[in-house]
Design goal:
The structure holds two protein chains of two kinds. By secondary structure, chain A is an alpha+beta fold. In chain A, 23% of the residues lie in helices and 37% in strands. The chains are: A alpha+beta, B mainly alpha.
Chain lengths: 159, 262
């Protein structure tokens, strides 16, 4: 994550534009156990139930595995992504040749977890096609809001 | 704890344990074996029971582990298991011959709609991942608390909550699409079909309205209807109920069909 990318208020996406790349980030505090957030993040078959930005997600989310994702940003396009890194309950990275998405969870120690999603896209040819790529801001904010809502519902399940 | 006291306590819990294991495994034979093995294992390990949990929690932990071992290599059932098994039953003349024989000779063969509702949930819950199915039954039917389920399944309370929430959400979604009792658009009418077969003189609409879940179908939200479905299961012991012989026969049939299904 670039040091020049600053986090705005919780849940609000921030985008940094450069000549050959664009990076978007969102962060939100969730009052839930990191294990719950991690489980939501890594269970592919359950995404469409809670995540309004995902049209479909096929495959198994595990290190080295390939997943097929369709987003509401561009429902006609299927992104074939490789799960590149998984550090349980802390960090996950998936991506393709054009970019990578990084999820991080950081426990605040008071029953709250900071969930951050960051994506950087780019290439030497980026200036030629960047105008065709829609803004990720709203989609990122919805993703984070959906994650927060779902994880807190689960956390607050009556005992 | 003395062996005598343990035996007394075990006998008080065995009925619930057996019904739980039956609902998880869908096999009368396996349920009986697992309950027996639970008793033996618990007796062997009785000296290790320190009262950190209730005896019931401890016994359910042993039984659940044995059930998980039993099911580890077996496939989960599809959501439309009742459709598949219905087709197989229609193609197998012996099924209805046996069922009618049971209905004429057994005192526990009075077909009741609510018993079929409970049977149906047992079958369809086997489409969930095993952890979700276990958690759902332990909480919603056998009324364990989240922390007790965490002890039974040796998992964190966070994960138990996740399994409960997602399992419940999945079952609500499935039954909303399938069950014609709670949704006029539902694709499954087996309760009315079988009631017509076993109780031809009854009017299904009159009978089904005796069930709270059916009465509230139009006005209640889906979460409440699910709670009412769980109330039906809570109130029924699949071994002691009025339709037990009939439903166990149906369950055995479904299990055999699913063993061969790919």
């Amino acid at each position: 994550m670039t040091s020049t990318l600053t986090m705005a208020q919780t849940g609000k996406a921030v985008t940094e534009k450069k000549t050959f790349s664009r990076a978007t980030s969102v962060s939100t505090d969730i009052k839930a156990d990191p294990a719950i957030i991690w489980k939501l993040l890594t269970t592919a078959s359950d995404y469409t139930r809670w995540n309004s930005t995902i049209v479909s997600l096929e495959g198994k989310i595990a290190p080295g595995e390939k997943i097929r994702l369709k987003s509401t940003l561009d429902p006609k396009r299927t992104f074939k992504l490789k799960v590149k890194e998984m550090d349980k309950k802390k960090r996950m990275v998936w991506g393709d040749a054009q970019g990578k998405r990084v999820y991080t969870l950081a426990s605040k120690g008071n029953g709250e977890t900071t969930f951050t999603m960051y994506e950087k896209i780019g290439s030497p040819m980026f200036p030629l096609y960047k105008k065709y790529i829609p803004s990720f801001d709203t989609s990122f904010e919805h993703f984070a809001a959906d994650m927060k809502k779902e994880a807190e519902h689960i956390q607050n399940l009556k005992k | 704890m003395t062996t005598e006291l343990f035996n007394e306590e075990f006998n008080g819990i065995a009925g619930q344990l057996k019904s739980f294991i039956l609902r998880i495994t869908a096999s009368l034979h396996d349920a009986e074996d697992i309950v027996h093995d639970t008793y033996i294992k618990a007796l062997e390990k009785l000296h290790t029971f320190r009262g950190d949990s209730s005896l019931k929690t401890w016994l359910f932990a042993i039984g659940s582990n044995l059930a998980k071992d039993n099911l580890r290599a077996r496939k989960r059932w599809p959501e439309n298991v009742t459709d598949i098994c219905k087709q197989e039953a229609h193609a197998n003349p012996a099924f209805f011959e046996e069922a009618f024989h049971i209905s004429k000779t057994s005192p526990q063969a009075v077909f009741e709609i609510k018993e079929h509702i409970a049977f149906c949930f047992t079958c369809i819950s086997k489409s969930l991942p095993l952890e979700q199915q276990l958690c759902l039954f332990l909480k919603e039917v056998y009324e364990f608390k989240v922390n007790e389920i965490a002890q039974i399944l040796d998992n964190s309370e966070a994960m138990i909550k996740y399994y409960l929430y997602t399992g419940r959400a999945k079952m609500i979604q499935v039954f909303d699409g399938r069950c014609a009792i709670i949704n006029k658009e539902g694709v499954c009418h087996q309760c009315s079909e079988l009631n017509g077969v076993y109780n031809p003189k009854q009017r299904f609409q009159e009978e089904v309205m005796k069930i709270e879940m059916a009465r509230e179908a139009e006005n209640a939200d889906k979460e409440h209807l699910f709670d009412l479905r769980m109330n039906i299961l809570k109130a029924l012991d699949p071994f002691e109920s009025d339709a037990a012989a009939l439903q166990l026969h149906h369950l055995e049939h479904n299990r055999n069909v699913m063993e061969k299904y790919s």
